[in-house]
Amino acid sequence: MTLSIQDNKSKNIESIYSLSPMQEGLLFHTLYEGDGVYFEQLSLNLSGNLNPTTFERAWQRVVERHPVLRTLFVWEKSKKPLQVVCKKVNLPWANYDWRNLSVVEQEEKFKDFLQADRDKGFELDKAPLMRNTLIRLTDQTYKFIWSSHHLLTDGWCLPIILKEVFTFYEAFNKGKDVYLPPLRPYKDYINWLQNQDFSTAQTFWRKTLQGFTTPTPLVVDQFVQQNLQYKKTYQEEHLRLPEKVTSALKSIVKENHLTLSTLLQGIWALLLSRYSGEEDVVFGATVSGRPPSLSGVESMVGLFINTLPVRVKVPSDAEIVPWLQNLQSQHLEREQYSWYPLVEIQRSSNIPGGRPLFESLLVFENYPLGSLLVEDTASLEIDQIKSYERTNYPLTLVVVPGEELLVRILYDTNRFHPDTINRMGNHFLNLLKGVLKNKTSKLQDLPLITETERYQLLVEWNDTYTEYPEKSIHQLFEEQVKRTPQNIALQFGCETLTYEQLNNRANQLANYLIALGVKPNVLVGFCVERSLEMVVGLLAILKAGGAYVPLDPSYPQERLAYMLSNSQASVLLTQQKFIDYLPKHERVVCLDKDVNYTNVTSNISTDVKPENLAYVIYTSGSTGKPKGVAMTNRSLVNLLMWQIDNGIANQNTKTLQFSPISFDVSFQEIFSTLCDGGTLVLIYDDVRRDAIALLKLLTQQEIERLFLPFVALQQLAEVAVKCNYLPVSLREIITAGEQLQMTTALTNLLMKLPNCRLQNQYGPSESHVVTAFSLDTSAQNFATLPPIGRPIANTQIYILDSYYQPVPVGVPGELYIGGVGLAREYLHRSDLTAQKFIPNPLIPPLLLVESVEELSWSPRLYKTGDLARYLPDGNIEFLGRIDNQVKIRGFRIELGEIETALTAHPQVSEAVVIVREDEPGKKRLVAYVVETLDIKSLQTQNTLREFLKQKLPEYMIPGAFVILDALPLTPSGKINRRALPAPSISHDSENFVLPHTPTEKMVAQIWQEVLGLEQVSIHDNFFECGGHSLLATQIISRLRQTWKIELPLRRLFEEPTVAQLAASIDFLVSTVQKLKEVTPSHLLDNQEEREEIEL
After folding, report:
1. Quick check: 3 pLDDT over 50?
2. Of 436, 440, 538, 697, which is most buried, counting CB atoms within 10 Å of its CB?
3. Which strands make up the sheet holding 922-931, listed edge to edge?
4. Sign of the Cα pseudo-torsion (979, 980, 985, 991, in order)
5. What percent of the chain has pLDDT over 90?
6. Helices (H), 938-1045
7. Which residues contact 129 (CB under 8 A, 6 or more apart)?
8. Do residues 439 and 796 lie in contact, with contact meaning Cβ atoms separated by under 8 Å?
9. What domains does the chain contain, in order, with CATH numbers?
10. At what angle do helices 499-515 and 532-543 cross, to 10 degrees?
11. Quick check: helix, strand or coil at residue 258?
């Protein structure tokens, strides 16, 4: 129950006045978060001949001196919150005697007491909002605990209050009284605030934050379902900077006319910049808030501090000291407007309502509490001073100066793992240490990670050296032919070829190609349908020393013409059926017409070296023209040997050939089978595109190994769990090309295939496969988005920032690939090759290893454009494309997160989410979903929207949903996002809907009055209509008064539309009525009470 002013006895009211902006903010967060937030707890040890009664009396006298310590707060039945000062209050005081307990028992009980005290919290409408506890440990030793709410005071008040307490105590203890001059009341500060120039301050802050549209991400925080319903729990991490380093930093600060606070803020900004990859960051910082123009303010007691945004530009080429000096100048300019309310600053910014301006807070505690207490307690010794506070921010750094700089990190354990916080703290200290060594250098030269981390990232996790043969691909195949000449190599329908037969036919064709001039590094255009001859042709080209250029007949003629022209292929090897479609070429050879096979079937001796090309595969290019990726034998032999050594295949394994040969996965399918003695099973295109037909073939042919892109794998899983064709022969499924998602259907399939391993591989065409992650445990334990694993043999993976420096574990960066697997070049595109295949910018860490032989170091790297991060165990998490970062209304959104949430719906088999801008300047999220095969009953808009609201915040809910029979695919089986249709008007969810129920009409009316709007749709978002935290308090207060229900403040943040709020109110009112019907009447006599119902 909330106490109104009228419920107080008026004779005990000394004064009533408004809150300071900071108090309003703390009140809001206390009401929103619930118990525990902004609870302050100071504990210390008192040693000596303490008189408990006198000590309590001294505290009571201090409470009588300061009105703010006798203050309560009311916020209902008034347009804005008020603080009420009581004339008299009795300070709650508890005394305990624990002398009969052992030291261990005392410590344990004290720990439990502190937590219980925090859990108890305070009722904000009852004064005083503080209480004290004195615990006797020995005859001469006590524990003292002062608990209070941050609404009353700030840290700068502690020395003032405690100095007075011990002044009174020392006097009372000697039988004397003491006169302390009266101090200015906190009310004078409130009056001073009301006389400030708000218009000028608003202009300053609007200019300061102009252009800043997205809160700086913390990036290393863990994913939590952002529906705001999880309970926050906090922990602390303490780190110290050695005395010698602390002293040196103070000297640098003094020499350059800086403050320690400026240095710390600059270093925190640099850390946020390195973590987020952004050069423009914002975080929060507390300021003392005591205006010099208010006389006597230095000795006043109350809440003066303010939390302000600190915006810092972090140009990498800036010199450290001048950059810090500029930052300090900005702070001085900001000081005159440091009183301005944070909620108003937020409204002056471009950050959407309902979003925090920042999520990290830096507090510089520079009040000398310990030294003052020593001076004023002649009869007592004080030590073990510890404080506890909890903010509403997920991450708060409290820096305490001293001989050793102490960094206390308060963090929400739902958002951060302790190891993550420990790393972050050490990175902060490492940057500070770096200032000592690099004070004349540039910001980009300051080291973020430690040498130990650098060794782990660059050396230990890239220790992939493995011997592999200095041979060509066809030589590996010929060696296998000698081992298993009569084993079945190829199967296509009823046709088969043994290894010996395949080798003989390939040798015959190779001789013919050699006669046409094919030799090492000569390119051969290759357009052949799925058949045994397709594999014969590929082998023949390699045996002749040439490199094949796959030409897919489904491609447009213009694209095929460009590929032939750009590759300068000397021969075009094809079939009669494609002659009329393919571009004209000087030397066209039809396998089914022109080839005169010789009788020579023996292996050919050609001068093919590992550095010679094996194929050139064309991939999409950003310029609109495809680019030819030229891969060498060396690169591909390394891949084959790794695949053979680490896969399940053997001389009898059946592998399906699924991928078109115009995609690199086909090489892996074909040659990892043929170089290891297995059987390659080819299929017709119509089977490849039909999930049910494919499933039947897998079962009938007892396929053991399968390479499938995720979309095809998902489709297969959908039909497998509903049909009688469970492919129990499968022992390994390898997927690559797209982000693997462990959907319900895929999980169910794998649970029914306990002997089957799922492997997630990653690698662009420019390197083929470079990482792999095997999912060997129970399927139900798989991560929803599995990592891409670790680098394969002779491959290096580096995750770097924009300055080519390794990023820490958990921090996103661009993924770079090194090692023998890299392509030679983009064919005849030296400009693009130089842009994407760069010299390795990382200095070989030779000092970190005993010998060069230990070091896997690549002289060049491929710049992938992919975003990734290292997980603590060394596996790599793929995060998407860097150039596809999505921002909607200032929110940074990961589309994959929405897609994963959608596919968790039991009626959704596949989902894709994209950003559409069908009207200029109006970006919105559009979801495309495919329903499960056996259910076609989705009420698209409402069903999916309500489902997603249980998993995602409002800003991540798509504005439109489109049902498709199937997602459009590229020839390689990936989703073709460009082919997704624009949503029709019937799909659009943004139509204006007037309130129609009595509850909706009343809620809308309250919104209109508080927000100053003429009309409100039931789907309008409170924060997008101009609402903010303080107005939210007014809205909830009005709703409570109207319906006489206890509606939590956080409900407006969880359900920010009229329709959602109205539904909650109807449910609450209905529940209250039902309770009244079953509750005895004598329990309902007190009409002043309200039923409190929390959902």
Report:
1. no
2. 538
3. 908-919, 922-931, 960-964
4. negative
5. 65
6. 940-949, 998-1011, 1029-1043
7. 71, 72, 122, 148, 149, 151, 152
8. no
9. 5-188 (3.30.559.10), 233-378+388-450 (3.30.559.30), 451-464+806-884 (2.30.38.10), 466-483+497-632 (3.40.50.12780), 886-987 (3.30.300.30), 998-1084 (1.10.1200.10)
10. 60
11. coil
**pLDDT over 60 (residue 915):** yes
Q: What's the confidence (pLDDT) of residue 706? A: 97
For residue 401, give both structure tokens: 């100066």
**Number of residues assigned to the chain:** 1095
Strands (E), 150-231: none
Beta strands 523-527; 571-574: pairing state: parallel
CA angle 422, 428, 432 (to 5 degrees): 140
Rounded to whole angstroms, the Cα distance separating 779 from 380 reads 64
Q: Which of 639, 668, 641, 649 is nearest to 538 (CA)?
A: 668
Please give the residue that has the higher pLDDT: either 1091 or 193. 193
Complete DSSP assignment for 565-631? HHHT-SEEEE-GGGTTTSPP-SSEEETTTT----S--SPP-----TTSEEEEEEE--TTSS-EEEEE
CA angle 719, 722, 725 (to 5 degrees): 75
Whether omega for the bond prior to residue 128 falls within 30 degrees of 0, making it cis, is yes
For residues 56 and 4, the answer to whether their CB atoms sit within 8 Å is no
Show the tokens assigned to 658: 């699924």
Pairing of strands 627-632, 93-97: unpaired
Query: In the structure encoding, which two tokens stand for residue 788, read together?
Result: 């891409």
Structure tokens at 541: 């080209």
Q: CA-CA distance, 1005 to 1058, in Å (whole number)?
A: 10
Q: Tell me if 499 sits within 8 A of 481, measured CB to CB.
A: yes
Cross-strand bridge partners of residue 572: 525, 588
Phi-psi region of 560 (alpha: psi -120 to 50; beta: other; left: phi over 0): alpha
| pLDDT > 70 fraction of the chain, expressed in percent and rounded | 89
Strands (E), 634-740: 654-657, 679-682, 705-707, 732-735
1017-1027 residue pLDDT tens: 888 888 777 78
Long-range contacts of 373-379 (CB under 8 A, 24+ apart): 373/44, 373/162, 373/163, 373/166, 376/162, 376/163, 376/166, 376/167, 376/170, 377/166, 377/170, 378/170, 379/48, 379/49, 379/170, 379/173
Q: Is 98 within 8 Å of 135 (Cβ atoms)?
A: yes
Residue 1092 pLDDT class (50, 70, 90 cuts) = very low
Residue 485 corresponds to which tokens in the numbers above?
Answer: 């000449």
| Long-range CB contacts (within 8 A, 24+) of 197-200 | 198/340, 198/344, 200/337
C-alpha–C-alpha distance, residues 857 and 854, integer Å? 9
Q: Report residue 38 CA to chain centroid gap.
A: 27
Nearest to 48 by CA among 137, 180, 161, 154: 137
Separation of alpha carbons 432 and 443, rounded Å: 12
Tokens encoding 998: 């009595």
Query: What residue type is 217 in one-letter code?
Result: P
Q: CB 13: neighbour CB atoms within 10 A?
A: 14
CA angle, 306 then 341 then 71, to 5° = 65
Judge whether 954 and 353 are in contact, CB under 8 Å: no
- Indicate the range of 148-152, 291-295, 638-642, 1073-1077 predicted with least confidence: 1073-1077
pLDDT digits (tens, 9 = 90+) for 314-356: 998 999 999 999 999 999 999 999 999 998 999 899 887 778 8
Residue keyed to tokens 């034998």? 633
Q: Which residue has the tokens 């006298």?
A: 61
Q: Residue 37: helix, strand or coil by DSSP? A: coil
